[in-house]
Specification:
Strand content: 15-25%
Number of helices: 7
CATH topology: Rossmann fold
Structural class: alpha/beta
């Protein structure tokens, strides 16, 4: 038992003393995901960690691109490729306190895959996600992002109450 052996290391206290060095947070541009971004920013600020804001996107099909071009005309570039993801990241960065070292990643793929892969590649020690989808029927049947991330991540995971 940790409390009886003075040589034993309490992993919770050890983490608190060492603090986080790289925090990854996922956002899809929703207000609830921005709550997770805000919390991750506060953690990065308090611990002096680098903050990496990540969003996943999927490219539009040829048909979807044509429909966007017809509906939006010259403005259709805003929904093609990674441009919408770039907008999401710009908005997320605006919510981070001054003085935090922030980097961003927009990557094609499914959110869970992008988040877990980025956390591993960038050697994150904390991955932050919102709780949206945890208590929905779809989330229970198919697996929500926060639920699946907790099983696949190789670092600490913080699920922020955003709903």
């Amino acid at each position: 038992m940790i409390g009886t052996d003075p040589r034993a290391v309490d992993p919770v206290r050890s983490r608190a003393m060492n603090s986080y060095t790289r925090v990854v947070v996922g956002t899809d541009g929703s207000e609830t995901s921005y709550k997770a971004v805000t919390r991750a920013g506060a953690i990065a600020h308090a611990s002096g960690a680098q903050l990496l804001i990540v969003t996943a996107y999927r490219p539009l099909s040829q048909r979807e691109q044509q429909e966007a071009a017809q509906a939006l005309g010259a403005e259709s570039y805003k929904v093609v490729g990674s441009h919408p993801a770039d907008d999401v990241l710009r908005e997320a960065c605006a919510r981070i306190p001054a003085g935090v070292d922030v980097d961003t990643v927009a990557a094609e793929g499914e959110p869970v895959d992008v988040l877990v892969r980025t956390a591993i590649e960038r050697e994150a020690d904390l991955l932050v996600v919102g709780n949206r989808g945890l208590n929905t029927l779809t989330g229970r049947l198919l697996g929500s992002v926060p639920s699946v991330v907790t099983h696949r991540a190789q670092c600490d995971v913080l699920i922020v109450a955003t709903t």
